[in-house]
Write a structure and sequence with these properties.
This protein has about 375 residues and is an alpha/beta fold. The chain contains 15 helices and ten strands.
């Protein structure tokens, strides 16, 4: 399972592949208009290679770094064809005071994406975490009708603000526990399970062309959680609720076995849903040993291969790049090194593995045989 991919193997395959397609917006449902003033990405960049399989390769973006770090900005533009705001579309950022919106940081990210011919994954509308303090404080004493009105206004106002500019929205994020029960969030407590379908309906009314996703972690594995999400989305589809896809966050850790992700992507796609890997990273205990780095390389390689193998898999998004900027060390003590670039923004073997996996897969589905 674990093997090390050598750097340098890629050149022949890439050059041999000839014409590199920089952008494939037309292959996807409702891509936002793409201005033409982007600079060409190198033929061996992740985005150029992924385009040959009709795949968008994305990253979470830290908008502070985008503004302050030239090297970070250059990598974001040249390597990726999709971007996800790591934080700046979350409710606590866009409505810090009730009734006063602040879209500035998110608008800057959308502008960056348009300049660089990238699509945007909107993240995220309904979640239990990173809620504004005013909401967390007031929610317990609200009636269900009051809280539902606040949630609806949030979903409609945010989707309306970005209407026509978002490719995929993570409408509902992390609604389940690992045992397959619904998470005991303020949404479930006050509104009951129907809040999930409501959120999709509100989002669809506000931007009928955006692809609407349910997004969660640990659903890469077959088990109680992915089975519960499967039942939820099957039920939503059967009831005509406007859901288009399921996002598999794919936060892996080398201390656990690799997930049977291909199986899960396939069974969800057979429901007529699109799928995406939305937040890929592979963390490990520090310091990294060669054995662990091989396992990290295997984690990135196999998850990308799974997406490439499933026609309904529209995008493969890493949760940031640059180990110095990853969320992992702050949340999982003693762990890190989870991204494909090191602390100095140099590409790691994990990067080379993605590059080589894309080069080997180039062609099918492709330009004339799009993902859908
Ligand atoms: C994380 C961000 O990376 C951090 O910067 C922030 O402090 C907390 O949220 N699942 C998700 C993401 O859906 O929004 C989370 O992002 C990581 C886990």
């Amino acid at each position: 399972m674990s093997f090390r991919l050598r750097a340098g193997l890629i050149t022949t395959a890439v050059i041999g592949a000839g014409a590199v397609i920089l952008s494939q917006g037309a292959a996807f449902a409702a891509p936002p208009a793409a201005p033409s003033h982007h600079s060409p990405a190198p033929a061996d960049s992740l985005r150029s290679l992924a385009a040959q399989s009709g795949l968008r390769i994305g990253t979470a973006i830290n908008t502070d770094l985008l503004a302050s770090n030239d090297q970070y900005r250059a990598i974001a533009a040249s390597q990726f064809s999709s971007v996800t705001p790591e934080n700046v579309m979350k409710w606590e950022v866009v409505e810090p005071t009730q009734g006063t919106y602040d879209w500035a940081a998110a608008d800057r990210l959308v502008a960056f994406a348009q300049q660089n011919d990238q699509l945007v994954r909107g993240h995220t509308l309904v979640w239990h975490s990173q809620l504004p303090a005013w909401l967390t404080a007031a929610a317990p004493s609200m009636t269900p009708d009051q809280l539902r009105a606040i949630l609806k206004k949030h979903v409609v106002d945010e989707v309306t603000h970005f209407k026509g500019k978002i490719w995929q929205w993570d409408v509902v994020n992390e609604a389940f526990n690992d045992d397959g029960t619904l998470r005991d969030s303020i949404w479930l407590q006050k509104l009951g399970p129907g809040y999930i379908a409501d959120a999709f309906r509100w989002a669809h009314q506000a931007d009928p062309k955006a692809l609407l996703f349910y997004n969660d972690y640990n659903i890469e594995f077959t088990g109680p959680k992915s089975n519960a999400v499967y039942q939820l989305v099957q039920d939503l589809k059967a009831r005509g609720v406007p859901i288009d896809g399921v996002g598999f966050q794919t936060h892996l850790d080398t201390q656990y076995p690799l997930p049977d992700l291909l199986n899960n992507l396939q069974r969800f796609s057979k429901l007529g849903l699109k799928v995406a890997e939305t937040e890929v990273d592979v963390r490990t205990t520090l310091p990294v040993t060669p054995v662990e780095q091989n396992a990290q390389v295997a984690g990135y390689t196999t998850t990308l291969q799974a997406c490439l193998a499933v026609r309904a898999c529209l995008s493969y998004t890493v949760w940031g790049f640059g180990d110095a900027y990853s969320w992992v060390p702050g949340v999982f003590p003693g762990e890190g090194a989870a991204t494909i670039y090191d602390e100095n923004l140099q590409p790691k073997p994990e990067y080379t593995a993605l590059q080589q996996t894309l080069a080997l897969a180039a062609g099918t589905p492709g330009r004339n045989n799009p993902r859908r």
